[in-house]
Amino acid sequence: MVTTRTLKPEGRSAHFNWAALGRVAPQGLVNARLLAHHALQWPARCARANIKSAADDSHSSFDWDPGLAALVTQPLRTPAGDVRVGLRLSGLAILLVRNGAILDVLQMNGKPEQVIGVWIDAKLQALGLRAASDVRLPYGMPDHAIAQGARYDLYLQERELGELARWFAGAAAALEDARERLADLRTSPVRLWPHHFDIATVAALDAPGAEGARSIGLGLSPGDEHYAQPYLYVTPSPRFERLPDAPKPGRWHTDGWFGAVATGDALLEQVNRGQAVLRFILEAVDVGRKRLGA
Fold first, then answer.
1. What are phi and psi of 98, to 5 degrees?
2. pLDDT tens, 203-225?
3. Which of 12, 130, 140, 277 has a 20 to 30 A CA-CA distance from 242?
4. What are the CA-CA distances from residue 184 to residues 22, 71, 178, 216 (Å)?
5. How far apart are the first and last CA of the chain?
6. Are strands 198-204 and 84-88 parallel, antiparallel or unpaired?
């Protein structure tokens, strides 16, 4: 049986307007997600060109900045102070940011990759940073016309990109809440990873470097080859074979990877979406801890 939690209303998640989600059906975000995923690789290249590599690839990870409603890189050091390069999902715009203030903006709509690269390289070099356009990504990207030279075309995608931004904003708030409520565990910062385009944190159940270390990942994917819509996931590791009932409104995913999943359409059906999101995450973590003996 899954433990039922009574959740206190305070926390970052309570301040997010969960009622605003659903203006676009979760299954209708596929093209917006692909556009945004390709667009995000420009800030990712900026980070890879200018931040020392980390073994866990965290140098290329992104934070969600709620004030800017944008995904921003880790700090890039310049003689005049740190800057971050960001992507505002709503409207698809590249941002240059210092101390939370926007230094410059490039609207991507109607522009091909070559034009975007020229603009970014010029801005980086003016700041004393290395150019980004020659950076080779160490991973493949989903197929899209952008990769074949097409322009970023936001026609009929503005509402979808705004909805995608709200999914990331809500997930970031819920994951930060979950970290606070899992204070007895070591949890990593909430970060977005440009390869899979998911925002996540990992709760460690064992000391760093321990043999066979156990962990539980918790996050949100905006959709992928498994689900053509945003979904929450909680992934205990190592996996366990005997499955209890999944926390509502979720299910167990066992094809290719293992975890509890709550799809966007299932979450939108909940009366109190914010509490349902947080409850699903925490109850799935509880199941993982019990089955992994932690």
1. -135, 125
2. 999 998 888 899 999 999 999 99
3. 277
4. 34, 28, 11, 13
5. 17
6. unpaired
What dihedral do alpha carbons 10, 16, 21, 23 form, nearest 10°?
Answer: 140
The answer, yes or no, to whether residue 43 has pLDDT greater than 80, is yes
- CA-based nearest residue to 236, from 249, 262, 254: 254
pTM above 0.90? Answer: yes
Question: In this structure, what token pair is assigned to residue 258?
Answer: 């293992």
Q: How far apart are CA 116 and CA 97, in angstroms?
A: 17
DSSP tally for the chain: helices H, then strands E: 5, 12
> How far, rounded to the nearest angstrom, does the alpha carbon of residue 279 sit from its chain's CA centroid?
19
* Domain layout of the chain by residue ranges: 12-23+158-291, 26-148
Tokens representing 174 are 């819920």
| Cα-trace Rg, the chain | 19
